[in-house]
Amino acid sequence: MSExxxxxxxxxxxxxxxxxxxxEPKSREQLLELLRxxxxxxxxxxxxxxxxxxxxQVADLQVRDIMVPRSQVISIRANLTPREFLPAIIDAAHxxxxxxxxxxxxxxxxxxxxxxxPLALKENHDGFNIRxxxxxxxxxxxxxxLNVLLREFRANHNHMAVVIDEYGGVAGLVTIExxxxxxxxxxxxxxDVEEDSYIRPLPSxxxxxxxxxPIEYFNxxxxxxxxxxxxDTVAGLVMSRFGHLPKRNEIxxxxxxxxxxxxxxxxxLHLLRMTRLERRHQED
Length: 284
Hints:
This protein is an alpha+beta fold.
């Protein structure tokens, strides 16, 4: 048996992908096309394709594309007592919180929820000063590229950064988990799509689609012609094509549109990433 074979006599998927790249791609789109062809030929499974696509496309995104906006930031006032701020921490169940002075624009540090555990052993909190527990806050501009931010997070061992707008005010928050979710698709919430909208474009040309987007709205937005006789929402349309409730990173194509599941639970879909395929098919 040759050395480039796996134990079962088959080439690994990496070796197959390398062979597929014999004709070197000249652009990122050609590279993605080769990867998708490899997926169609069973060289890559759904999860591997989604992760590779996410890793390639993350450079197209900026912090503003994924940050938790200012209106949804949960902060703690430095002058509050534990009795006053602990209910908010328990309710939100986050691991990190910005601590502010007079306003959200006055961030003085970051509080880790785990640093509050010693309070549980104290009968009273006399003499408590939250400033004694604070970690330094990291600030980044809205325009910073996600691949650069991820590199800085890893180098500085930070997990959260305060996002600053062009005027120096706080625009939102971003965490290392937010960046990694763009690669692995493990999105836990819908912060990436504003509450009052169903569809949000991404710099790569893809779109974030709320699963509960009405089919009529989707048709109007993309000049599509999906029937809403049987299903009212994009979730119903996508699940009908799968034939089951799909999990994260599962992919299906429907009439020139590719849908990848970004967020789902055991009962319903939450968020999808959509790619229009008409142009690519026409070029073929």
